[in-house]
Write a structure and sequence with these properties.
This protein is an alpha+beta fold. The protein has a domain of 153 residues. It has a 9-stranded mixed β-sheet, with helices on both faces. Helix 4 packs across helix 6 and helix 14 crosses helix 15. It is elongated, with a radius of gyration of 23 Å. The protein starts with a helix and ends with a helix. The relative contact order is 0.14. The model has no long low-confidence stretch (mean pLDDT 91).
Length: 382
C-alpha cells in the first residue's frame, strides 16, 4: 500500500486536486484550527465515493480508513468529528467551492472537449425544510457523465429565472441544449442562440396556443390524416426486461404556417416523439412534442429527445436513491449546497469508472478496497 500511496501523492491529478482546493477561500481561522480545509474536503470526497451520505457517515468512513488518510494527508490527529465537517461545509461559499472543485473534475474527465449536448433540468430537495425547500438547476453531460454547472434557485424565484444564470456560466459554442418545457421561453432561446448553440425544447400544455397548434399538426401527420412532404420519420424497437418498447419520431421542417414562429429565434423544425410500451400484455402510449433549431434526421432528433432523460436517470435519480440527497438531514443552506456538490462530483467519478457494476456496488467496493477508492477518485487505474 505504501508504494501505491507514493504514486498517488505525486500523481498529477491528485496534485491538481490539492491545488484547486487551495484556490477555495478558506473560512477557517488560521492558528486556531486542528484540520486544514484540504483534509476536510478530501476525506469528504473519498467518503462520498465510498458510501457515506451524511456527515456522521463521513466521520465513520474516516475512522475506517484512518491509516490511509494519515499517510495520504499527513494527518497527525484523530479524524474530524461529524460536527466539524458540518461546521466547515456551512462556512464555505458554495459558488466558489463548486467552481474550484468542478474545475478539477472537468480537467480529469476524459473526452470533455467532445461534449456536443448539454442537458439542463431542475431538482427539488425537500429535506431542507417543509416550508422552504431547496431547488437546484443543473447542467449535465451524458457523454462524459459530469455535472457541468449547478445553481441554486433563489428564494422567491423559479427555474425560469435561474436557467439563464446556468447558461451564462457554460461554454455553449457549437453545442445543443435540451431543456424540459419550463425552459421553453423566448428569452432562453435567444440566449442559447446568442451563445452559438442549438436547442431542442419540450412543449407542454402550459405553452397554450403553441402546444395546441404543434400537437394538432403533428398528430394529424402521425395518424396519416395530413400529408406533409417535408416530414422525416424514424422507428426504433427495443425488447428486454419483460417489455417491448417502440419509439417513433416525426420531424417536420415546414413551419411557415405556425403563428408567431418568428418569436422563436432560429426555429427550424417541429418534432413528435411517440413511445409505445407493452408489458404483461398492457400497452401504454406517450407522446412528446418539441421545437428545435436543428433540421437533422428523425433518428438524430430522437437521440436528442431520449438523451435528455439521462439527467433524470443517471444524475438526479442516482442522487436520490443511492446518495439519499432528498432525505438529507443538513439544514444549513450553505452546507446542503456544498454537500450536494460533493455528491454530484462523487457520482460523476463513479460513473466514469468502467467497472461493470452498479453505482451502489461501486461505492461498496470503494468502501472495502482502498486501491479501488483511489482509482475512482483520480479516474485512473493504478
Amino acid at each position: 500500500m505504501s508504494s501505491l500511496l507514493d504514486k498517488i501523492v505525486t500523481n498529477e491529478k491528485f496534485v491538481n486536486l490539492e491545488f484547486c482546493i487551495a484556490e477555495i477561500p478558506d473560512p477557517l481561522v488560521q492558528g486556531r484550527i486542528t484540520y486544514s480545509l484540504r483534509t476536510i474536503i478530501i476525506i469528504a470526497l473519498c467518503a462520498a465515493i465510498g458510501g457515506a451520505n451524511d456527515f456522521t457517515a463521513i466521520e465513520q468512513f474516516g475512522w475506517a480508513h484512518c491509516d490511509l488518510f494519515e499517510q495520504l494527508l499527513g494527518l497527525k490527529t484523530n479524524i474530524p468529528s461529524h460536527d466539524t465537517f458540518d461546521r466547515v461545509f456551512s462556512l464555505i461559499c458554495p459558488r466558489l467551492f463548486f467552481d474550484c472543485i468542478t474545475l478539477w473534475l472537468h480537467d480529469i474527465a476524459e473526452a470533455l472537449e467532445l461534449i456536443d449536448t448539454v442537458r439542463i433540468d431542475g431538482k427539488l430537495i425537500l429535506s431542507l425544510s417543509a416550508e422552504d425547500p431547496l431547488c437546484f438547476v443543473r447542467a449535465w453531460s451524458d457523454q462524459c457523465k459530469v455535472v457541468l454547472e449547478q445553481v441554486k434557485v433563489k428564494k422567491g424565484t423559479n427555474e425560469i429565472t435561474t436557467i439563464p444564470e446556468v447558461l451564462e456560466r457554460l461554454d455553449l459554442q457549437g453545442k445543443t441544449v435540451t431543456i424540459d418545457a419550463i425552459g421553453t421561453q423566448t428569452k432562453i432561446v435567444d440566449m442559447i442562440c446568442e451563445n452559438g448553440a442549438d436547442y431542442m425544447l419540450a412543449l407542454k400544455k402550459n405553452q397554450h396556443q403553441l402546444y395546441d397548434d404543434v400537437s394538432l399538426y403533428l398528430n394529424d401527420i402521425a395518424n396519416g390524416d395530413l400529408v406533409e412532404p417535408s416530414v422525416r420519420y424514424y422507428k426504433d424497437i427495443n425488447k428486454g426486461h419483460g417489455r417491448n418498447e417502440t419509439r417513433e419520431c416525426w420531424v417536420v421542417s415546414n413551419i411557415d404556417w405556425l403563428y408567431n414562429r418568428r418569436r422563436w429565434r432560429n426555429l427550424k423544425s417541429l418534432v413528435l416523439v411517440k413511445s409505445t410500451v407493452i408489458k404483461k400484455g398492457i400497452s401504454t402510449e406517450n407522446s412528446r412534442f418539441y421545437i428545435s433549431s436543428h433540421s437533422k434526421s428523425a433518428r438524430g432528433m430522437l437521440h436528442y429527445a431520449r438523451g435528455h432523460w439521462s439527467i433524470e436517470n443517471q444524475l438526479h435519480w442516482q442522487l436520490d436513491t443511492v446518495f439519499c440527497e432528498d432525505v438529507s438531514t443538513t439544514r444549513d443552506v450553505y452546507g446542503i449546497q456544498n454537500i450536494a456538490a460533493v455528491k454530484g462530483i462523487a457520482l460523476s467519478l463513479l460513473l466514469q469508472n468502467e467497472t461493470p457494476i452498479s453505482v451502489k456496488n461501486k461505492r461498496a467496493r470503494a468502501m472495502a478496497n482502498q486501491p479501488y477508492l483511489m482509482e475512482v477518485l483520480l479516474n485512473q487505474h493504478f
